[in-house]
Amino acid sequence: MFEIKAKDNRGRVGVLKTNSGDVKTPNLMPVIHPRKQTIDVKKYGADIVITNAYLIYKDEDLKKKAAEIGLHKLINFDGPIMTDSGSFQLSVYGDVDITNKEVIEFQELIKTDIGTSLDIPTAPFVTREKAEADLEITLKRAKESIDYRNSQNMEMKLNSVVQGSTFPDLRRKCADELTKLDADLYPIGAVVPLMESYHYKELVDVVMNSVAHLPDSKPRHLMGAGHPMIFALAVAMGCDLFDSAAYILYAEDDRLLSVRGTYKLENLQEMPCSCEVCCNYTPDDLRAMPKEKRRDLIAQHNLNVSFAELRLIRQAIYEGSLMELVEERCRAHPNLLEALRQLGNYSDDLEKYDPRSKKSAFFYTGSESLYRSEVLRHIQKLRAMPRKRDLVILPPSRKPYSKYVSGKLGKFYIYGSEQELDLDNTDFMVLDIPFGLIPLEIDEIYPLSQNESPRTWDVSSLEFIEDFISEFVEYYDQVLIHSNVIKKLDIGLYNVHSQSDEIRYKKDDLKKVKAIADYQFGVGAGDALFRGNINIEKSKKTGKIRHIYDGKTLIVNMRASDSFLILSKEGAKRLHAATKYPKNRVVVNKDSEPFSLEGKSVFAKFVIECDDDIRAKDEVLIVNEEDKLLAYGKALLGACEIMDFQTGQAIKTRKGMKK
After folding, report:
1. Which listed residue (84, 134, 432, 611) is catalytic?
2. Distance between CA atoms of residues 320 and 303, nearest Å
3. Which residues are bridge partners to 263 per DSSP?
4. Does the CA dihedral 594-598-602-608 come out positive or negative?
5. Which pLDDT does position 470 carry in this prediction?
6. For residue 22, which phi and psi values (nearest 5 degrees)?
């Protein structure tokens, strides 16, 4: 029903399959009023819409007509339709004249594609007693709906809505319980008051505590979210669908949406974008129009802006630049920026879903970039790498750093116990924003060379680097710090007591590929892979390492775009022999064994276990339950997703081990 096509952080481009067609996500479902709709939303980009089944049910004429001709003809939309159950009216008026079972039956009767149970939308900041009581009803009704749908063999897909007000533990509890029911989609409800009051920080807590406890294989829907300024942030948190009537409600109030906020027509001197409406009309033109015509044109603009933003977000996911877009969008309002900083508290969660290599370079846009997955991951890996006795810290220069570090390196200050420098027992690293320190042997691996930051360092990045270095240097007997580094950092951090003689960095290709292997596959992988008569072949055009052999036997290729090592058959055998189960492994069941041996790709439903550290685009070993090597390939999903999905491809196999 749902497949992931591209990933960046928790954001994903996916395909939601319904009886009325497929929907590319992330996407917006414009709200369609069953009697008052005047805008053809499909004309402006809507692939899926949402309407209110309860409003149809309560209107005898609409109810009869919907039962006779079906929902799609009733609202004149031939694509997928989701229906709400009356929960919104319940939250506003306190009661509705329909039972949970009745609304499920009615949604199936009128042939909705995705129905919703009658949950209790609990407002933010209520008492805990109120939130807990409402939650019990929501969970009871969700179970009742799923059981009834299944017992009646209904075709309709079902939402189960996550509630719990602004209590993170209740959101987690609700998500955990709903996951057991195996619904088709999981909306996150009762968040509109948070968005309307600009409580975006609290919105982050609500969404992240919900999404982290929902299955990765099902779409998540942020209910009532319709302003384009929050789409990027919500997608980065793992939301796939949005719905709102904002496009028409704002238009009725002469307000124009934008990714930077909302414009009032009365204040506009220029039109705010380049959509068809903004190109063909001036603010004066709109102000002079009859109310209904003006409303419809502004609604068209609002839809154009919303769908354009979603296209841009999907493109950013394909490129791997989603977080740059999020950081840009969240500077539109101080409360959004606060929300982005709050999201930094969930960096460990986001890292699990973030691919290690991307098409786009890493752009540092401010102190918030320091909490991105790439930075967290590098620091964790750097701390796990084997260390030598001494450390030399060099200033940043042109990238890749290792290409331009040569000859005499200049003057250094010494931190720690002064002794004669042993170049064979010394780590050479470059000071870098935002990655702290980058060892020269691995500096070409993504994103360590593929990153850009301003030459003028901000206070937050300096504090981050100083704290990291002051902790990191304690692992070494002696640290030599280049004089240009001392100028950038607070010299009070260092116990400087003399200058050293000029020293040189000696490049060593074998050490380089071993360090990359350790960084990519785990400590010890370098020695395991590159033993024997090692021959390193470079590109004649670029001078970059391309292929590494033992004699004439290929071990690995090095990908030019990101310097990651791509295993050959021999490389897979060596890595498998040297690492312990389940490191770097995806374990398939017996049914899949013969297909894996032949080099067929691995589908998620055949995977029974995998290394928790696997991320999308990682090189992986494919083994059976006895740890017999069957094949090797590239992961298309992260470990969490591989284990949760029951459909779709998980591993793109490069080659099977069948002779």
Report:
1. 84
2. 25
3. 256
4. positive
5. 86
6. -95, 150
Which of these, 438, 209, 224, lies nearest to 343 by C-alpha position? Answer: 209
Q: From residue 90, give the alpha-carbon distance in Å to each of 55, 87, 124.
A: 12, 5, 15
Retrieve residue 614's tokens. Answer: 């696997």
pLDDT digits (tens, 9 = 90+) for 319-353: 999 999 999 999 999 999 999 999 999 999 999 99
Distance CA 44, CA 306 (A): 10
SS3 of residue 185 by DSSP = strand
Give every CB contact of residue 277 below 8 A, 6+ residues apart in sequence. Answer: 271, 297, 298, 300, 301, 304
* Helical pair 168-181 and 128-151, crossing angle rounded to 10 deg: 10
User: What is the C-alpha to C-alpha distance for residues 593 and 591, in angstroms, rounded to an integer?
Assistant: 6
pTM: 0.95
- 467 classed as catalytic: no
Write out the two tokens for 394.
């060099």
Residue 454 is given by DSSP the state -
Q: Which H helix or E strand runs over 257?
A: strand 255-258
When computed from its CA atoms, the radius of gyration of the chain, rounded to whole angstroms, is: 28
What b/e string do you get for 614-644 counting C-beta neighbours within 10 Å, with b at 16 or more? bbbbbbbbbbbeeeebbbbbbbbbbbbbbbb
Per-residue pLDDT band for 154 (boundaries 50, 70, 90) equals very high
Calpha distance 585→614 (Å, rounded):
8
Residue 483, number of CB atoms within 10 A of its CB: 12
* Other beta carbons less than 10 A from residue 228's beta carbon: 27
| 76: exposed, middle or buried (Cβ count in 10 Å: 0-12, 13-18, 19+) | exposed
Angle at 303 between CA 300 and CA 304, to 5 degrees: 85
Could you please report the per-residue DSSP string of 542-586?
A: T--EEEEEETTEEEEEE-TTT--EEE-HHHHHHHHHHS-TTTTEE
d(Cα 514, Cα 406) in Å, to the nearest integer? 21
Rounded Cα–Cα distance for residues 220 and 455 (Å): 40
Determine the average pLDDT of the residues in 24-35.
95
List the structure tokens of 117. 């149970």
User: Residue 444: which of 389, 388, 485, 405 has the closest Cα?
Assistant: 405
pLDDT digits (tens, 9 = 90+) for 95-118: 677 889 999 999 999 999 999 999
